[in-house]
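FW: tagging you since you asked about this chain on Friday. Here's the raw sequence from the shared folder, copied in full. Didn't touch anything.
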Amino acid sequence: MSVPATTTGVVEPPASAEKKRRLPRFWLVYAALMAVFVLSVLEVVTGANDLASSGTISATLIATMPIMLAGLGGLWSERAGVVNIGLEGMMILGTYGAGYFGYHYGAWAGVVGAIFMGMLGGLIHAIATVVFGVDHIISGVAINIIALGAVQYLAALTFADLPGGGTTQSPKIPDVPTLTIGPLSDALFDVEKKDWFFVSELAAIGRSLVNNLSFLVIIALLLLVLTWWVLWRTPFGLRLRACGESPAAAESLGVKVLRYKFVAVLISGGLAGLAGGILAMVASSNYRDGQTGGRGYIGLAAMIFGNWRPGGLLTGSGLFGYTQTLGLRPGDSVKALLLAGAVLAVAAAYLQARRGSRVSAIVMAVVGVFLGVVYFVVDTVPNDFSGMTPYVITLLVLAFASQRLRMPAADGQIYRKGSAG
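HL: got it, structure written out here
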């Protein structure tokens, strides 16, 4: 398999790697508007009035960012050809880094500490997989186990004797600054309270972006855009993606494959660490044992759902973050989603049937009918079901999105220097 070079000597991935049906240029905006419209209809049909309130959207942003950053870390690593199952462990390291450095040196030091601790996990993974050729899955699982034990030991060692601390938690961390534009926030809130169809929901979203918005949320969104620009618009990103498609061909054209893989895994660890930092400093106010709650794995699922691209990753992360947020809201909100899920499942069954996928169509139809029956039979959704919603969504999305996915061709392969020869 050969990889062509451009006139500038930059390695191009195979044409088939990027050959897909192109989406509209602003498809994310269109998708977001459609989602708001659907939520507006749901509020009218079901009477649930908290599906698109500014409080729900603000909480969704906070719930989405750790998942998105973890998935973004996985995207950097896997685009270079290194599978990173260790995202969960790197997030755990990030929560401790935020707690320790944030308490002793201030909020922004906590952010740097979270990134640093995550990069330590990335360094271990890079040395194991890139330098010594350890199986990527084995290395990632080992990092998850080691990180959990190491952080529990370090927390007991460093937080137990501090006021407000303990063996399983740090003292309170200083807050990261937030952005509030008072006059605009008040004006949008006035529109939100009027309950105008679709318009009030848009106002609620706008208010969530200008009222008490953490700078870490802004930084996370900027990192998503920066990742897209670096990986898809610069020679560096082109070479890095070539390492994940055909490392032998890339090396034959002068790309230092191992160096690119190493750097990508370090960046991956730093992003996962920052995800843990957001959990400790924005979603909470201190480090706590078990704080990640499997979000590293959900981030990996969101990355796969997004087909290893930033836009799809944001969509998947938002889906998981939104369902997680509604799990903490009144039961009427979750019940309204059952109706939406039933309609979407039936529509998906119809599309699968038209494509000739009879088994998938039958399964989706059964899921749609089940959700519809539950919606009409159950008065209130139990809290236990609400709490498991994000994880169920993760499994369903991966099960039914797998047919259109295409991972980097050399993802997970062990590569030795000189293989091009």
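FW: The chain has two domains: 47-326, 330-406.
HL: agreed, and Confidence is low (pLDDT under 50) at residues 1-9, 13-20.
FW: great, closing this out.
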